[in-house]
Amino acid sequence: MAKKLLKGNFIYTLFAIIVGFAVGAIAMGVAGYNPLEAYGSLFGVVFDTTKTMSYSFIEYATPYILTGLSVAFSFKTGIFNIGAEGQYVMGSVAAMLVGAFVPAPAVVLIPLCILASVAVGVLWGGLVGYLKVRFGSHEVLCMIMFNWIAYYLSNFLVLADGINVGGGKTWSHSIQDAAKITITDWFPKNAVSSRTHFGIVIAILCVIAIYYIINRTTLGYRLKAVGYNRSAAEYAGINANRCVIVSLAISGALASLAGGLQVMGVTYKVTQFAAQESYGFNGITVALIGATNPIGTLIAGWFFGAMKYAGTRMKLLDGTRVPKEIVDIIMGCIVFFIAISNLFRAFVMNRGKKGGKA
Amino acid sequence: MSESERIKKDAPIAVEMKNIVKMFGSFRANDGVNLTVRKGEIHAILGENGAGKSTLMNILYGLYQPTSGTIAINGKQVKIDGPNKAIELGIGMVHQHFMLVQPFTVTENIILGMEPMKSVGRVNMKAARAKVQEISERYGLNVNPDAKIEDISVGMQQRAEILKVLYRGADILILDEPTSSLTPQEIVELIHIMHNLTKEGKTIIIITHKLKEIKESADKCTIIRQGKYIDTVDVADVSEHDLASMMVGRNVEFVVDKKEHEFGDVALKIEGLYAKDYRNIDVVRGLDLQVRRGEIVGIAGIDGNGQTELVEVLTGLRKATQGKITMNGKDAYNKTPRELFDMGISSIPADRQKHGLVLDYSVEENLLLQNIDNAPYSKHGAINFKAMHEHAVELTQKFDVRPSGCEGNPAGSLSGGNQQKVIIAREVTNDKDLLIAVNPTRGLDVGAIEYVHRYIVDQRNKGKAVLLVSFELDEVMSLSDRIDVIFEGKIVDSIPGSEADENQLGLLMAGGGKTHG
Ligand SMILES: Nc1ncnc2c1ncn2[C@@H]1O[C@H](COP(=O)(O)OP(=O)(O)OP(=O)(O)O)[C@@H](O)[C@H]1O
Ligand SMILES: [Mg+2]
């Protein structure tokens, strides 16, 4: 039964992806780009060399895998973590502060940075959970506020004396070399992107851990029970309030970790944002494409990372660049069609397969 | 044979289902079922939990497609490929569990999905409301079109569902266990409404487990056992006992075998308890109650006299405002559900789908809702799936949860009665000092009721205390060692179970007895 459902999900996701690409093709056709050439280039760009693959599946994908995992996990426990954006920002700030200013050798500093970003995520997410259970504030509204708080707090800190790099620049000091997790020099010259880092390994470990928690532990059992039917869970003596806090804390940790690893492996510093950066929001997309399943999220994160990377380099045969917004259109369509795939599903079932249960 | 009965006998056939087979995977939920219903008839469908009654009706309503078999409506063979087709054919269904939008009014719920339009995008509420009112009056449904669903009683919600079906022009009404969540008074009203409907030429197919209702309302009864068609009988020609044995395939004992014995110490003691309901009105008002070990105390009362809130307080869902509660001598006043459970209170909740089960969880997961943290079911937070499964196999066999091998299926895929058995299996197996049972046999077939009653009495015989709250007076009278009558939030009288009689209880429940204190 579960297998069947999963298969069902997969088919609808695939369908949505195909439709998304079709709509993207139409958009390009209207704008005067040859879609076949563009898609050929899209595919070519991603799988061109080991270097482009490392861009797609490591550098670009890692943060999306983690924010996607964060949102997927929250979904499983009946909450919608729209706060991943703010948690991501807080995680990157925490990692930057520790990485830039705590003097320590790499063996200490790297775990410390990771710990700092995870801890701040636990707080940032858990606090929303606390406000929800203590004062009944709605978590979605709360998280949207928290996203803005994180955004302005980060901009404030980045420009603050001592943290700002100075010289009228709009970014922070860079982290010390001891805090960097980039591993380009482990590979032959030019084999991988200049910002290939072992955060991807941590992300994959997180996917496995979350899969394990959701499916194999009493913690996951309780969290899911609260997500499916809070009344019954409470009646059975499960502390639903605590579950909400724990779930948001774990979600927060994952999204913040994404931000932390991005600083440690790719950006090395935090820059003043002109607008919210959307790593967290894109996590929602990734979670949806991944059917809110940890393994699915990993694959969806890779897909998303590859699309983002290829979007920046899509070309026609004559060398004309295709605007990267095309990729956003495609991704938007995919999410749209996944969201309405429930309708398709109901439709298909009415055509005679099976229905709900009276 | 009376005139009206003769007319019904010759009436044209409204529904004819022949040789219906429905497979779920390799499981045969319906295995060659026949159903012939004449126009203007009330036709009951009787069968054990999981016999395939709801499945058969879902096929008639187009929710499921039969694997094989034919359906004819008003003499014409049809293929019902969806509820829309069923509605087109004049078939309407009220489901076992209601499907109403809580914050909407009755009228809004009724027109949902087929709003009459004034112009594009503008709903003609006034016309809709008038039509709702008209139907309500015509059949004596007594539904307030402007009331919000969340504010009205279960009985009125049910009538709103019936109204919805009539609004859509149904001539053939399917009612799936319409009475299982109604109070006895509401049931009387419903039967009256059903007669009004058939007088107007409507045809009714009703599923119920209550043999008394079948005798009181139905003309014909079709019996199904384990998916197979057994017989269709004239209700007038058979006794309740006959019906029961036909459906279960064995003789059913209606009396509970319960020996006199000495009661032990007081387990649950409540003194001067006050509690408010959701409107913030005092509904439990100075209630005193005690249950001793080895004793079944039944609470008899008309719905709305505080029994619901009393149970909520005892299970930790609601905070009392004043009073004293002790369990085995320890303070049990306003504790959390977990604390009360650990103090020795387990309960079979009134609302099985809301409080009793996580429908998306499998049966085996549901059976461990309280005990997942205990050995052998988990170790250091990791679940032992083998132990979980074995536990479930043992319980589903012992408590006859069907179909066999359902341990891994989602609880939501079980038939209503089998969902109830899962809860009972879990709570009885918890084996706590006090078992609170609220309408424990709701939706169960007579055979299953017999088992459940035996389990409850077994708990008593083992020296456990049992608090039974039930709308079924028969159940309260046959099980209780002592019956406490609740009226306006207080226990107004306490009668030894052996001395109770229905009339006296009825009088006391209506507030007509002597009042203490
Ligand atoms: N969608 C489904 N998938 C798998 N099995 C199903 C499904 N629906 C029903 N069943 C099985 O078919 C059998 C018949 O179920 P049905 O709901 O028709 O019983 P019922 O006679 O209405 O019982 P009850 O009196 O308890 O409501 C049950 O064993 C049930 O578990
Ligand atoms: Mg049923």
Please give the structural blueprint:
The complex is a heterodimer of chains A (358) and B (517).
Chain A: H1 2-30, H2 35-47, H3 50-76, H4 84-101, H5 106-135, H6 139-159, H7 199-216, H8 218-228, H9 230-235, H10 240-267, H11 279-289, H12 294-311, H13 325-339, H14 341-350
Helix pairs in contact in A: 1-13, 2-12, 3-7, 3-10, 3-11, 3-12, 4-5, 4-6, 4-10, 4-11, 5-6, 5-10, 7-8, 7-12, 11-12, 12-13
Chain B: H1 3-10, E1 13-24, E2 27-38, E3 42-47, H2 53-60, E4 68-73, E5 76-78, H3 83-88, E6 91-94, H4 106-111, E7 117-119, E8 122-123, H5 125-138, H6 154-167, E9 172-176, H7 184-199, E10 203-207, H8 211-217, E11 220-225, E12 228-234, H9 240-248, E13 266-276, E14 282-292, E15 296-300, H10 307-315, E16 322-327, E17 330-331, H11 337-342, E18 345-348, H12 352-356, H13 363-366, E19 378-379, E20 382-383, H14 385-398, H15 416-430, E21 434-438, H16 446-461, E22 465-469, H17 473-479, E23 482-487, E24 490-496, H18 502-509
Parallel strand pairs in B: 3-10, 3-11, 6-9, 9-10, 15-22, 15-23, 18-21, 21-22
Antiparallel strand pairs in B: 1-2, 1-4, 4-5, 7-8, 11-12, 13-14, 13-16, 16-17, 19-20, 23-24
The structure holds adenosine-5'-triphosphate and magnesium ion.
The site of adenosine-5'-triphosphate (ATP) has 18 residues of chain B, from helix 2 and helix 15.
The H-level CATH homologous superfamily of the largest domain in chain B, spelled out, is P-loop containing nucleotide triphosphate hydrolases
Measured as a percent range, the helix fraction of chain A is over 70%
How many distinct domains of chain B? 3
Q: What structural class do you assign from the helix and strand content of chain A?
A: mainly alpha
The most extensive contact between chains is: A-B, 29 and 43 residues
> Which residue ranges of chain A are poorly predicted, with pLDDT under 50 across at least 5 consecutive positions?
350-358
Radius of gyration based on Cα positions of chain B: 24 Å
